[in-house]
Specification:
single chain; 276 residues; alpha/beta; 2 domains; six-stranded mixed β-sheet; 44% helix
């Protein structure tokens, strides 16, 4: 069945997932939620994909939850099914994956490949939540950011109160959440909310250039292990993280990608990593 609210494309080992409701600034819906999660899992299973890019069609990334749904809830309240869905875990837990990253939108850190949020325009509320769980965030110089929740009588949703301070610091997180003000890309970069800003005219080209470079020249095994190390370390002591790194180093010295990493450098040629 074709997607209704997203687009999916794979080229040069990069999977691009595009939120595709441009007339609504890609406002988030239940349909979009399901399609994005399915696309991410498809990209993870595809051996031809090494990097995942999430972006928006048209002039915005995501304007948050669809306002029509919010209006309905504001006037009629949640029915029993919606209330249950809002507080219950999403499906069963997966053994070997930290429960923290098995919540409604916090699953991106469990994806074994890098996930890049390509923020091409305004990003607000739930859209910002989604981007926070991506590994990297690149923004166009025309992008604008806002939490929005406090101006709608809402709270810091879906773990944002935990994730946002880890990216921008305690004081900046409280500023963004308390005021719910919109900030531009330059301020987002200063805070550490985004990794890089690119001109709007060349934005998608620059993001793709980065993604293709990683897909072509970096060991998929290294990416997989490093990503797990970084997210697990958020819950570990330095000593625990250090011990894990020693074990992973010994394992990496015995893998095929290590041998290829040395060989391509010595032979001055492009790498041919297999992820093994």
């Amino acid at each position: 069945m074709p997607n209704q609210e997203t687009l999916y494309n794979v080229a040069d080992r990069v999977a691009t997932i595009t939120l595709n409701r441009p007339d609504k600034l890609n406002a988030w819906t239940a349909v979009m939620e399901g399609e994005v999660k399915a696309a991410v899992r498809d990209a993870e299973r595809d051996e031809n994909v090494r990097v995942i890019v999430l972006t928006g069609a048209g002039r915005g990334f995501c304007a948050g939850a669809d306002i029509s749904l919010l209006s309905t809830v504001a006037t009629k309240g949640l029915d029993s099914a919606q209330r249950a869905q809002a507080v219950q875990p999403q499906g069963g837990t997966v053994e070997g994956i930290r429960a923290d990253f098995q919540k409604k939108y916090s699953y991106f850190p469990t994806v074994t490949k890098p996930v890049i949020a390509a923020i091409n325009g305004p990003i607000v509320g739930l859209g910002l939540v989604i981007a926070l769980y991506c590994d990297l965030r690149f923004a166009s110089d025309g992008a604008r950011f806002g939490t929005a929740f406090a101006r709608r009588g809402l709270i810091a949703e879906y773990g944002m109160a935990w994730m946002l301070p880890r990216l921008v610091g305690h004081a900046n997180a409280l500023d963004l959440l308390f005021s719910a003000r919109m900030i531009d890309a330059a301020e987002a970069l200063r805070m550490g909310l985004v990794n890089q800003i690119y001109p709007q005219a060349t934005f998608h080209e620059k993001v793709r250039e980065y993604a293709v470079d990683v897909a072509a020249n970096v060991s998929p095994r290294s990416l997989r292990v490093i990503k797990r190390q970084v997210y697990d370390a958020m819950f570990l002591t330095l000593a625990e993280s250090f011990e894990i790194s020693e074990r992973e180093m010994l394992a990496s010295l015995q893998c095929e990608d290590f041998k290829e990493g040395v060989a391509h450098f010595v032979e001055n040629r492009a790498p041919v990593f297999t992820g093994k």
